[in-house]
Amino acid sequence: MTYDLYIGDRTFSSWSLRGWLMMEKFNIPHRTHLVGLYSGTMAREMAPMAPARLVPAMRTASGLVVGESLAMAETLAEENPDIAMWPEDPSARATARWLCAEMVGGFASLRGECAMQLQHVNQGFAPSEATMADLARIETLWAHAATFKTEGPWLFGTYSLADAFYAPVCARIVGYDLPVSDATRAYCMTTLQDPAFKAWRAEGLKTTYDPFPYDMGVPTSDWPIPA
User: Fold this and answer.
1) What is the C-alpha separation between 94 and 103, in angstroms, rounded?
2) CB–CB of 85/160 below 8 Å?
3) How far apart are CA 66 and CA 75, in angstroms?
4) CA 181, 182, 185, 186 torsion-angle sign
5) pLDDT value for 3
6) Against a cut of 0.85, is the pTM above it?
7) Do residues 117 and 214 touch, judged by C-beta distance below 8 A?
8) How do residues 183-209 score in pLDDT, each as one tens digit?
9) Cis peptide bond upstream of 56, omega within 30
10) What is the pLDDT of residue 1?
């Protein structure tokens, strides 16, 4: 069973990263189709996936088009029941679904102020009070997840869909050098050091942008994990 996955520019498309990790981390066969978010070709390149209009979107082996990351996650989990994409424990599984749903509907200030970019670290960026509140909420949720944690470095111990959903948050925290606890930063570095994340970023860096879409007007330093 092979899926067709439509994604946007890897350096910037946080939702595309989520969709790709859902398949890559769980070894689900897929063909990737790149949609240009900054080239003016998005509408034409997404036309085969109508009525889906945003990335990521996928087509199942049966030809069904599914948009929106949370719907994609649940569909993949249903169609691949032998793969443990959610935590095995029912309480942990319910909590992981909660965290993913809150990610989809929340943290508007963090997303608005700190667009995901995987090129460098912005130094001296000053987050607003609303973004600091988003960070505090994220740390609360991650600490709650840890109460269900089994052995392993991920939110629930073993890698799950919740880790895929929060991978772009990790990139934002590191990419804007945001103030968080040592435990939160350690989890972010675990995500950034993961081979799948590194492969995604390395592929994205093959494309250059002039001008860079998200120039924050602050000094920058190197990304902490080599490509």
Assistant:
1) 14
2) yes
3) 8
4) negative
5) 98
6) yes
7) yes
8) 999 999 999 999 999 999 999 999 999
9) yes
10) 84
